[in-house]
Amino acid sequence: MVIIGYGSLWFVLATFSVIRYGAIWGRSCFFQTPGWLACTAQLENGARIGLGLVIAAIFACLLAAGLWLWKNGTAVAIVSGRLRLILLSLGMLALLVVPLGSSDLPYYFSSGKAISEGLNPYNSPWKVQVDFSDPVQSLTATYYAYGPIMATIFHYLYLLTKGNVVLFILGWKMLMLITFVACGLLTVYLCKLISKNNTIDWTVLWFSQPLLLFEWLVNGHFDGLWLLSLLVAIYTAHTKRWWLVLPALTVGVWIKFLPLLFVPFFALWWWQDINWNTWKNKTIQALVGVVVSGAITMASWVPYWVGPKVFDSLVMQSKWAFSSIFATIYYSLKPLFESVLADQAHWYLTRLVQGALLVVVLYMLYPLFKKSWAILLKKEAWESGKYVLAIFIFLLVYTLFWQKSFWPWYMTWFIPLANIAYQATKQKPIYTIITWISTVAVVQHVALLLNSLSKDPAPGTSLWFSWFVVGTIMVHPIYVLYSWRKNDYSFSLNESSPYAK
After folding, report:
1. I want to staple 452 with a disulfide (CB 3.0 to 4.6 A). Which of 145, 265, 268, 457 is the partner?
2. Are 141 and 151 in contact (CB under 8 A)?
3. Which residue ranges does UniProt annotate as crossing the membrane (predicted)?
């Protein structure tokens, strides 16, 4: 009954969105403007308050549903045909909801349009402007933050939908639905495979997860694509198909660059599998993987390569600070540093904050470095679940402490990794952390949307917003992670450990 009630919320959102699609098509409603839910750019105070209460109520329901699912979603061991239909309906309803937590879809559409017109988004300015966005929101993009595989997908989807923005949105969302299903099925399968069937069926938990539905299917974020490549890499490493591991990671890297961070873990995994009897076969497999990865790289970059400057946009994006721990510390100290150092304040403050956070990162990751060194020396070996756990911890530390920008959809990165690592190792901190970050992350959207309804909206630019995000989303998992780190993340876990669930 709870799932049905939860589905009713998505039905209301989808119905509202379908009604508004007509207004969007008729250009009387612009969804990028403040107050797009009411299809008017200027709302009276009463309407703003009413709309704010509706937004808060919607996200409160999503947060409550997320907490309930993490607590009770594992209780459904048998997924019946009726339940499968309900879960599929959730996905279809989420697919219809107009994006309300991000403006990335106009970016995707506009980049596809620019490429179709012969522009190279990596070195040519192009306009982010689509048929349903307010003309005052139009801007010129001077960088392209994604890999060449995404540029090609945007290009061909634009051609396939003949430049129709509504068809582009629905086509893109359908691709995200397929990705969502594929990631879910592979995650559930890997949980069973790596834990040797000592697992709980989390099918319901995955396919009804509010954050995944909202970020991937409603807002259209494509993190599921590179996560799918990472899951394939984990599967091929676990089954010792080493010639496929690097190609799978390469596809992920040229989608969103981030999987490059995980290559050392898979290299260590491969090294652990080598001995005097197998080194020749494993080396040949690895070399085949390198050749295939090179072919994938060349094919991906051929339409766009203009030299190393294609990565300039990635460097530019890495300098943007938004609602992260770095941004919170930097903007809190900036007035003080400017009063003392004037024009040199930025240079000194940036290096001070980055240096301090680097020390924290090294401290938090030291147990991983220590265990990795033991594996390099052939003094220790990990099972597959420990490698997934190491990737989960590394990515969590990187995102919480080192990433300069923080967005709620980043928390979707951890859901498949946490599922697999928890099922394989049964360590309680994994469950505690993923329950928190995958549910509380939606409050960032509440603050953004409520702030956008203000008379002079500038969502996310105020210092209070950064403190709000850090305080609500990050502080608790950081505390759990720090307590866990004092026990070396329980890589030598025994049954009496307080971290075993």
Report:
1. 457
2. no
3. 7-26, 46-70, 82-101, 141-159, 166-190, 210-235, 242-271, 283-302, 314-333, 345-366, 387-410, 430-450, 462-482
